[in-house]
């Protein structure tokens, strides 16, 4: 066996990362929430919870419900808004050697564009993940992810507003993911990320009421991993830009499935709730895999499914 | 807070579906403040994605114990945990009870296993006051002797009258308030944990007399550290709508009862 360790570093859409493991938006707060439990300097990148123009309150409770191997959530994107985020979290995040990717959303196309424009001026922000697929916000978001025309119009409005890398996040509930992946690339996206949560619901049969206040929510966790692997595989074949894969990743073995079907980086989401050590364990496990397979870097195995 | 693999030292069922779980957790136990909780990954719970929050009942040097009732999938499975087994906990978490004001009479109000969240306050409180324990039946009244041993005057109520005063805990609290003359004194200070209806009743009494009341809210939790925003409750706030969602796991689970909007407590 070679004595040199593999290089875990990646460059995703111009964002240099120590390793290809990111946090999935909405599962890691804005950084400080997990800082006592996870060394933020070890992350490939931090993707913060969705930010829109103004402060938002989110949905009524209950907001989440645990299902077999999964979690349904309808949090409803509460957040501090652009200015609140810049004031409250950017100074804190400056203390870390860590690319920060901000997940952005809006209720209208104009709001998406405005949020992108505001963050374009913030040096500490390495890139923007465009949330075109949150299933839990009544206005906007979900529709932008499943209606191809709206999807294009939104990205066409956002793209000229920022020079920062743009990473549209794709919805899983579309008939052909390749069409959306290609549309993102055509609109000037620098990478794509997928999958967002899968629309879902659960019912309390005794009270005959929904388990979460919003009635429907988004399913995450191990239950959706095989769905995510297939969608990442299809999307990766449709585009030349990097693909960031996520959906139910709990281990390095899970992560390797995504790399093999074409993801250049991956994100850990619900697993952070289950075990805050997951990210660090996955990074170590990826390195072990590369050593075992005599790969020098992650690029040596990306898309090598069937090869 | 940290993540630690605790070792089960002792695990016994008490009665009425209650169990006491004692764990060695040197990285967590010494740092627990009264009213804080640990977030536990219940072993053998299939591919369950969420941890379960448990108030810390007692700590003794490097051990901590939780007292729980078998109420669902998580606690049912937890019962199979045996001494020697390892269990992952994150803690200590949350904002617990404040140190009781020594100029006031501390009053503990506990419904069912709510007393588990109050033992450490009872132990650390310089002034030992009155503890009201309520439950459905005698089987729901736990640890009376432990609180008495600390010097507390324990008053028991049960809904079926099988132990102590018949009725809900408030049925014993109200007469006690009525017969005490608090005029000229700084009054009682309440520390409460139990069903939301009970907490609300305590809060109303405190509010009416401008007394302090600290309530520990029991909410479903997700991450336990403030990231997922599952466990939010409505607290009064200086904004146009008059309230804001506040995280039970970070700013709580203990809140000043005057801040809680009870219509937002599910």
Fold and architecture overview:
The complex is a heterodimer of chains A (307) and B (266). With 307 residues, chain A is an alpha/beta fold. In chain A, 30% of the residues lie in helices and 21% in strands. Chain A has 10 helices and 16 strands. Chain A has helices spanning 81-88, 90-93, 109-120, 141-146, 148-158, 177-186, 225-238, 252-260, 271-274, 278-292, and strands at 10-12, 15-17, 21-23, 46-51, 64-67, 70-73, 100-104, 125-131, 166-169, 192-194, 198-201, 203-204, 209-210, 216-220, 243-246, 265-268. In chain A, helix 3 links the parallel strand 7 and strand 8 (125-131). In chain A, helix 3 (109-120) runs parallel beside helix 5 (148-158). The radius of gyration of chain A is 18 Å and the shape is globular. The mean pLDDT of chain A is 95. Chain B has 266 residues and is an alpha/beta fold. In chain B, 16% of the residues lie in helices and 34% in strands. Chain B has helices at 73-78, 119-124, 144-149, 169-179, 196-209, and strands at residues 2-13, 18-24, 37-41, 52-55, 58-60, 63-69, 86-93, 105-111, 130-135, 153-158, 165-166, 188-193, 212-216, 232-236, 243-247, 254-256. Chain B has a 7-stranded antiparallel sheet, with no helix packed on it. In chain B, a hairpin with a 6-residue loop joins strand 14 and strand 15. Chain B is globular, with a radius of gyration of 18 Å. Chains A and B meet through strand 6 and helix 9 of A and loops of B.
């Amino acid at each position: 066996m070679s004595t040199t360790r593999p290089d875990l570093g990646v460059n995703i859409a111009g964002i240099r990362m120590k390793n290809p493991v990111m946090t999935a938006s909405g599962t890691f707060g804005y950084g400080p929430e997990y800082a006592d439990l996870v060394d933020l300097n070890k992350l490939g990148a931090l993707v913060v919870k969705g930010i829109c123009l103004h402060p938002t309150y989110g949905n009524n409770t209950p907001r989440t419900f645990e299902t077999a191997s999964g979690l349904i959530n309808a949090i409803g994107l509460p957040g501090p808004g652009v200015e609140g985020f810049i004031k409250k979290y950017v100074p804190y995040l400056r203390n870390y050697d860590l690319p920060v990717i901000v997940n952005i959303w809006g209720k209208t196309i104009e709001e998406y564009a405005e949020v992108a424009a505001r963050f374009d001026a913030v040096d500490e922000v390495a890139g923007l993940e465009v949330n075109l697929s949150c299933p839990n916000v009544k206005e906007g978001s979900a529709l932008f992810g499943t209606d191809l025309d709206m999807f294009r119009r939104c990205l066409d409005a956002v793209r000229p507003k920022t020079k920062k890398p743009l990473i549209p996040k794709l919805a899983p509930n579309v008939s052909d993911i390749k069409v959306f992946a290609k549309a993102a690339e055509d609109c000037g996206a620098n990478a794509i990320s997928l999958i967002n949560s899968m629309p879902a619901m659960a019912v309390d049969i005794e009270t005959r009421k929904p388990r979460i206040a919003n009635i429907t929510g988004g399913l995450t966790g191990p239950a959706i991993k095989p769905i995510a692997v297939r969608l990442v595989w299809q999307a990766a074949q449709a585009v030349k830009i990097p693909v960031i894969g996520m959906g139910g990743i709990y281990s390095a073995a899970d992560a390797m499935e995504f790399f093999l079907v074409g993801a250049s980086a991956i994100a850990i989401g619900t697993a952070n709730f289950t075990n805050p050590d997951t990210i660090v364990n996955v990074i170590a496990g990826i390195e072990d895999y590369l050593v075992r397979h005599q790969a020098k870097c992650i690029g040596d195995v990306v898309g090598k499914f069937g090869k | 807070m940290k993540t630690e693999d605790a070792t089960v030292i002792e695990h016994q069922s008490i009665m009425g579906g209650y169990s006491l779980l004692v764990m060695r957790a040197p990285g967590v136990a010494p740092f627990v403040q009264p009213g804080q909780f640990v977030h536990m990954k219940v072993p053998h719970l299939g591919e369950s994605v969420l941890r379960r929050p448990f108030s810390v009942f007692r700590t003794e040097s490097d051990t901590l114990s939780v007292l729980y009732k078998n109420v669902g999938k998580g606690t049912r499975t937890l019962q199979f945990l045996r001494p020697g087994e390892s269990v992952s906990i994150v803690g200590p978490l949350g904002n617990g009870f404040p140190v009781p004001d020594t100029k006031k009479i501390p009053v503990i109000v506990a419904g069912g296993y709510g007393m588990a969240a109050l033992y450490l306050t009872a132990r650390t409180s310089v002034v030992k006051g009155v503890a009201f324990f309520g439950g459905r039946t005698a089987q729901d009244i736990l640890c009376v002797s432990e609180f008495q041993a600390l010097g507390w005057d324990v008053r028991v109520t049960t809904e079926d009258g099988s132990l102590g005063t018949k009725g809900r805990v408030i049925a014993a609290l109200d007469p006690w308030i009525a017969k005490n003359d608090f005029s000229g004194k700084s009054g009682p200070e309440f520390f409460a944990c139990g069903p939301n209806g009970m907490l609300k009743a305590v809060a109303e009494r405190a509010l009416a007399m401008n007394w302090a009341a600290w309530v520990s809210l029991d909410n479903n939790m997700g991450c336990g550290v403030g990231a997922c925003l599952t466990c939010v409750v409505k607290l009064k706030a200086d904004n146009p709508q008059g309230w804001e969602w506040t995280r039970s796991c970070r700013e709580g689970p203990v809140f000043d009862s005057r801040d809680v909007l009870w219509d937002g407590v599910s």
